[in-house]
């Protein structure tokens, strides 16, 4: 028996990194019977068959898991945004950040293309909300060393709307990657998807990173996650005010005596963040209970 981490899953094969070698494994039949699917990022126990192949025996307990992208044990979700083409809608950031917060995963906001647009409003919004917020340029290298420090030794996933430069940033962090990058369509103002599967890459600073598809891949997460009453806790700057509302069970949407809404009026919470919360709350209310996981 040996242990390792699944770096890649492709066509029924699982590539398990033991720290000294990568072993190509197949899952035993019991996983299918138990309706268990090994995920990229899983710590697993396997039997080494001695010829460079192995058989997966057990999935060790997970810190968290995501459906789309299908990854597990992610400590840090690096959300790539941009103030230049394509300009990132804050709602997309907030939705993914809320997912990360609900899954015991630390969000980091990374604003790329700062050589073209400093995205001051975005930068100040997430800095004030209490997130590690960085400005980088994959083109000039600005801020890349700081990003490398932030993710050192962590298991990370990189995500962001298509065209913001996820693969370019990974290439800047570790030039040996040579990940495929796509040109942004000037006509559409958005990028073409170039990331076709999830794979973990080891960086020289000890980080393990996953390059994942764009924000649209998180759409199906909505019905899995929040009951309306659980959503406020996934907005970290709301937390100091949640027990200060006049009425118990306050939805923090339009109620009188709401401490969260008052904090928005006083400039303590960004209006864009509250607007995103309201949109997510209304969506969560529409999901029937039988659909939730």
TrEMBL record:
Zn(2+) binds at residues 245, 250, 252, 258. One of several proteins that assist in the late maturation steps of the functional core of the 30S ribosomal subunit. Helps release RbfA from mature subunits. May play a role in the assembly of ribosomal proteins into the subunit. Circularly permuted GTPase that catalyzes slow GTP hydrolysis, GTPase activity is stimulated by the 30S ribosomal subunit. Gene3D superfamilies: Nucleic acid-binding proteins, P-loop containing nucleotide triphosphate hydrolases, Probable gtpase engc, domain 3. This is Small ribosomal subunit biogenesis GTPase RsgA. It is found in: Cytoplasm. Its EC number is 3.6.1.-. The keyword RNA-binding applies. The lineage of its organism: Bacteria, Bacillati, Bacillota, Clostridia, Eubacteriales. Binds 1 zinc ion per subunit. Its cofactor is Zn(2+). GTP binds at residues 112-115, 160-168. Its main location: cytoplasm. Residues 63-218 form the CP-type G domain. Monomer. Associates with 30S ribosomal subunit, binds 16S rRNA. It comes from Pseudoflavonifractor hominis. Belongs to the TRAFAC class YlqF/YawG GTPase family. RsgA subfamily. The keyword Metal-binding applies. InterPro entries: G_CP_dom, NA-bd_OB-fold, P-loop_NTPase, Ribosome_biogen_GTPase_RsgA, RsgA_GTPase_dom, RsgA_N. Keywords: Cytoplasm, GTP-binding, Hydrolase, Metal-binding, Nucleotide-binding, Ribosome biogenesis, RNA-binding, rRNA-binding, Zinc. Residues 72-216 form the EngC GTPase domain.
